[in-house]
Amino acid sequence: MFITPAYAQAAGAAQASPMGGILGLAPLVLIFVAFYFLMIRPQQKRMKELQGSINAVKKGDQVVTGGGLIGKVTKVDENEVELELGPNVKVRAIKATLTSVKPAGGAKPAND
Questions:
Q1: Cα–Cα dist 101/73, whole Å
Q2: What is the pTM of this model?
Q3: Which of 82, 58, 79, 59 has its CA nearest to residue 69?
Q4: How many CB atoms lie within 10 A of CB 50?
Q5: Is residue 98 exposed (0-12), middle (13-18) or buried (19+ Cβ within 10 Å)?
Q6: Which of 3, 57, 69, 94 is the most exposed place for a label (fewest CB within 10 A)?
Q7: What's the Cα-to-Cα distance from 26 to each of 46, 70, 79, rounded to whole Å?
Q8: Is 18 in a helix, a strand, or coil?
Q9: What is the DSSP string of 48-109?
Q10: What is the C-alpha separation between 55 and 22, in angstroms, rounded?
Q11: Cα 48 to chain center, whole Å?
Q12: d(CA 23, CA 109)
């Protein structure tokens, strides 16, 4: 009435195919492709845009540093910028620590 364990194991081995291994990897490949298009690619695009804006920073731009300081650029060197945080308060910051650059002239006014 019951099938012996040896007979059940032999029946399972006969059904195994080489395609089973490839089909087992398919969900992992699909997950990686989804992560690439939903997370990795947009992040790389944002980083490329930020790097371009940091390289194009000029005098008069308003920037935010990684430490949260907001200042106006008064001098630009190859690797450093000088920021004016307030009246007669100037600091130097490394360009790589800038997290946001707003061009001089501010944003466009709202169309009310």
A1: 10
A2: 0.63
A3: 82
A4: 14
A5: buried
A6: 3
A7: 30, 48, 46
A8: coil
A9: HHHHHHHHT--TT-EEEETTS-EEEEEEE-SSEEEEEEETTEEEEEEGGGEEEEE-TT-PPP
A10: 46
A11: 9
A12: 55
**Closest to 71 in 3D by CA, of 96, 49, 47, 93:** 93
**Which neighbouring-strand residues pair with 64?**
70, 100
Read off the pLDDT of residues 50-103 as tens digits, 9 standing for 90 and up. Answer: 999 999 999 999 999 999 999 999 999 999 999 999 999 999 999 999 999 998
Geometric angle at alpha carbon 51, from 48 and 56, rounded to 5°: 125
Q: Is the four-CA dihedral 102, 106, 108, 111 of positive or negative sign?
A: positive
| Rounded Cα distance, 26 and 24, in Å | 6
